[in-house]
Structure formats: C-alpha cells, structure tokens
Write a structure and sequence with these properties.
With 544 residues, the protein is of the alpha+beta class. It has helices spanning 87-94, 141-152, 161-164, 207-213, 265-274, 285-293, 321-330, 333-341, 369-381, 396-410, 423-432, 448-456, 470-478, 482-486, 488-502, and strands at 3-5, 45-47, 53-56, 65-70, 98-100, 106-108, 113-116, 122-126, 167-174, 177-182, 227-232, 238-242, 256-261, 279-282, 297-300, 305-311, 346-347, 387-392, 415-420, 437-443, 505-510, 514-517, 521-524, 540-541. It comes from Arthrobacter ginkgonis.
Length: 544
C-alpha cells in the first residue's frame, strides 16, 4: 500500500489534533483563566480552526515595516546549529519543506510530496522546479541532500542529528527528486521535515553560500524564504527585507521585518505600549492581561509549552531517581503558579497534560514535602549530598520561579545554588552536558512522538538529560512501525506510566501563549500549527 503526503490529501499521518494543549490539568490544580470567548473578542479578531487568534483590520496591504520584540538574543542564523531563539527569524528566511494543517496532518509547503510504498523502508520526496535561493542559485535535490549530510556529520551539534542519522542512503535522483533508504522502517519519517527545532532538516540553505561563507554563514544566511537578510550581527538586531523573487506572487506583504532583542518581560511590554516595537510573543497570562490594559491587542494562541526543571541524569544528584522524586515532591506547582503568575497559568501534573487526548492517569508523584524529606534523608544516609546548582535566565518570570523553588526545596533539606545565564549559553551547556539542572521550558506540540523522541530517546542528540530509559526507547521505536501507529494510544499510556517511574524532568507550570500587537499591525495571521510564530508572509502593516 502506498503512503503519500501530497497537496490536498489530508488523511495521512494524522497526529494528535491539538495534542499538547496545556489548557487544563487534573482537578486538584488551579487552572488560569481561558482566552476570551468568541463573543468577547476585540474588533477584528477571529479564531482559526486550530484555536489561534488572528487579527485583520481590513484588506491586507503591501509595504511598510514592523518590528518584533524577541525574548532572547540570536547568535547565529545557521539552520545546522542555531538555537531556539533564532527560529522566528529563520522561518522567514528559509521556508520549510512541510507543515501541519489544522488537524495535525503533515502537508507540503516548499516540497511537493513525500511517499513510501514499502511500509516506511524507503521514501521519495518530490520538490518544485524553478525555485531559487536569494543568491540566485537553484534550489534542488542536491541542496536538500547536502544540508542533511551536514546535519548528520560527525560532531554535529544539531538536535536533529539523530533524526537524520536514521537515513542509510539518500540520492538526488534528479533535480526534483530525493530518494531516502532508512536503516529501519519508519512510518513517521516525514515529521522530521516539519518545522522542527532550529538545526533541523526542514530549512534548506544554499549550498553555494554554505561553501563560500563557511563558519560565517550564520551571519549572512541564504535561503528561499519570503525575506532575506539586510543586516545582522551576533547578539544584535536582525533586519530582513522582502525577497522580490519569492516563489509566491504577492507575498510577503511587508517590505521590511525587524527583530530586536528585549529579554526583560516588563521592558518588552513597555516598549510595545510606547510604540517602540510593534509586536511580541509571551508565555504569560499576566503579560497578556497587562498588554490589554495598556491599549494593545492581546491575541491568545494554542498552548503547547511548559516550564520545567531539566535534570542532568548522568551527574549526581540527579543520577539517583530518589533525589529526582524528592525534588518533584518538594515543589508545589499550584503555589508556584500563584506566586509567579497570579494563578493565570495551569500547573502541570506530568509530562502529558490531562487535556491531551492520549492522557492516562499515572502515579506521577504529587506535592508531598514530608515524603520528599524522607527521600532526602535516605539519599544523604547513603552518602549523597542534598545540594545542586540550577541555571536559569534573567527574565522576571524565570527568576521568580527559581527563587520560590529554592525556598520550597530548602524546606525539605535541599540546598539550591541559583546561577543566571543567557539562553544561547544555556543551550550550549545543555547540549554538552555541562550543567546539573536548568529551569527552562519544554515544547511538546502536535508532533508528539517526534518531540518525545528528540527529548528522551537515548540516541537523540536533543536528549539534554544525557541518558535514556530502555522501556521508553522501545516504545518510541515501536511508534515508527505500522503496528505502533495502530496502537499508539496504548503506547502513549505505557510511556506515561514509565515516565512516572523514570522522572526525567520536573514539569512545573504551563505557558499561556500569546502575542500582543500595537496599532501599526493591520494583520496578524495567528500562530502556525506546531509553532509559536505566525506565517510572516501574511503579517501586514496598518499604514493609515
């Protein structure tokens, strides 16, 4: 039987719908307020089929410039190595091969199709002809193959290196065709070409520019996207200009799109209220409420991310499951939500929230400081030290959580040293394993099995815990098979039960995702399915 992903075909590789929408957890939790209902939406705001709020103040207009406030600095725009803070700008520069539709199906974007006729052992990808990179060279099958080889190369720091290394052989059959032979059949192989993390296979750079610029490519990237780089220096502003030769006539609407760094939450919001930036994303219900009070338009987006404590599972004290459980049971997620977010977020009760269609009741350790004290005593009696360092970033929502948790953990006999760093450094340290714990956030959206594999499989370069679990590995491997896809509900239930025993991270509080926009934004298309960002092609400026 032929399995294919082609334009107009929506029944292939159905994922989870809006799977990891963290809108509500167990009854014991205090969930934050929901987004405004359809009857109370601001003027010009509607809701997409995927649950994203979009804004349209009339017919789209071409021209103009808008400025986006970024939550973290960007050091590089190279899709083989960049960190998550670069993803927004890179989506505007490169385009992606495939996307998700509103039902969570994989559908073509830049590519034309991908199909298998042998249950996932080999796949054939078809590409468009006549598309050019912004340096004038051809986008073709050789470009795709060259990028994937770079990602899979020895020493690659890409979180998707493991995804690409499942390929035994890849051949550019002709300019418009790539054939992949996998080391083992994988029925969800196309998912690696959807969005993905920066450093993923979905964004194809110009091979000629990569060869010419070498390690400097990240400062002057060349893609086929709707925008091209006008100016950029590491850690500074990113200024993009319209690609006049973009493959879709009439897009993008904007002549210029700027990304400026504003890491402090309140500074970023104040800049938007003052009109110094035009739009910014947030993960805070408090920010969205304050933005509305300040005269901005708050646009709520589907929730698919949550704060968590990442454990280095290879180093003491987190190589001992007793200590991991003690930390989890010492942290009151409800209290954390109240202290850091005025109760406007949703506390987590595990790695799968109860709103997930595959959610299963498990024995995930609940808040129990007395139980935590006993576990700490056992660990110390066996020679362990009840202390660790936790690294986080400077924004106040991170600092507040870190300080509250520090006190909670001290109450059960655990000493926590807090270190403050920037996001690029934290990502580098996580990839290298040079840390004990980090307060950060996990992103688990529509591509559940793909993201869980990146985060938790023992062979994944994106497994920042640096250790795997044989049972979880086996379940993730089974999901790649036809039988695994048939019984994925059972597999997810088994996986959740195993997560509750393994305890690889400490989930904390769900984000309340959204964007706030100023008066100069005439059209905002809502976040794309599986991403926190909009389709930059369809963003337009109100030039009245």
């Amino acid at each position: 039987m032929l399995n294919a992903i082609k334009p107009g075909r929506r029944k292939v590789l159905s994922l989870v719908g809006v799977a990891f929408l963290l809108a509500g957890c167990g009854a014991a939790n205090t969930a934050g307020p929901a987004a405004p209902s359809a009857g109370t939406l601001p003027s010009g705001v509607t809701v997409t089929a995927s649950g994203a709020q979009e804004l349209s103040l009339g017919e789209p207009k071409s021209g103009g410039s808008l400025t986006v406030g970024m939550i973290a600095p960007v050091e590089s725009l190279d899709p083989t190595s960049s960190v998550s803070s670069a993803r927004s700008a890179m989506n505007a520069i490169f385009d992606v091969l495939f996307v998700y539709d509103e039902k969570g199906n994989v559908i073509p974007e830049l590519a034309k199709s991908i199909e298998t006729s042998d249950k996932g052992a080999t796949w054939t990808m078809k590409l468009p002809t006549g598309v050019k990179f912004t340096d004038g060279t051809d986008f073709n099958a050789e470009a795709v193959v060259a990028h994937l080889k770079n990602l899979a190369a020895e020493g690659s720091m890409s979180r998707s290196a493991g995804d690409v290394r499942q390929i035994e052989k890849m051949v550019a059959v002709d300019d418009a065709t790539v054939k992949f032979t996998l080391k083992a059949p994988n029925m969800v192989f196309p998912k690696i070409f959807v969005w993905g993390q920066p450093g993923g296979p979905s964004m194809i750079p110009s091979p000629a520019a990569v060869e010419k610029l070498g390690k400097d490519f990240g400062a002057s990237p060349v893609g086929v996207g709707p925008f091209k780089v006008k100016s950029f220096k590491a850690g500074g502003d990113i200024v993009l200009e319209r690609n006049p030769d973009y493959r879709i006539k009439g897009q993008p609407y904007l002549d210029e799109l700027k990304f400026v760094t504003a890491t402090d939450t309140q500074t970023r919001l104040a800049a938007a209220v003052a009109g110094d930036i035009d739009l910014a994303s947030t993960q805070s219900g408090v920010d969205l409420a304050q933005a509305t009070e300040g005269g901005l338009t708050s646009l709520y987006q589907p929730d698919g991310t949550f704060y968590d404590v990442l454990f280095n599972l290879t180093k003491a004290p987190f190589d001992d499951v007793r200590f991991r459980q003690a930390v989890i049971q010492a942290i009151d997620n409800n209290g954390l939500n109240q202290a850091a977010f005025e109760g406007k977020q949703t506390p987590m009760t595990g790695i799968f929230p109860s709103s997930n269609p595959f959610y299963a009741e498990t024995a995930w350790p609940a808040f129990d400081p007395e139980a935590a004290k006993k576990l700490v005593a056992e660990y110390v009696a066996d020679g362990g030290k009840a202390e660790f360092a936790m690294t986080t970033t400077s924004p106040p929502e991170f600092q507040k959580q870190a300080q509250v948790m520090q006190q909670m953990l001290q109450d059960v006999g655990i000493t926590v040293t807090l270190n403050v760093s920037d996001q690029p450094t934290m990502v580098t340290e996580a990839l290298s394993g040079n840390y004990q714990s980090q307060l950060r956030f996990a992103e688990v959206r529509e591509e559940i099995d793909q993201q869980l594999r990146q985060f938790f499989h023992s062979t994944s370069t994106g497994n920042n815990g640096k250790a795997g679990d044989p049972e979880v590995d086996a379940l993730l491997d089974e999901l790649r098979t036809p039988k695994g896809q048939e019984r994925k509900a059972e597999i997810y239930a088994e996986m959740q039960n195993r997560f509750a025993e393994w305890l690889p991270i400490a989930p904390l509080v769900a984000h309340k995702n959204g964007w706030y926009v100023g008066k100069d934004v005439g059209g905002f298309p809502g976040a794309r399915v599986g991403l926190p960002d909009p389709d930059w092609r369809l963003l337009w400026a109100n030039q009245n």
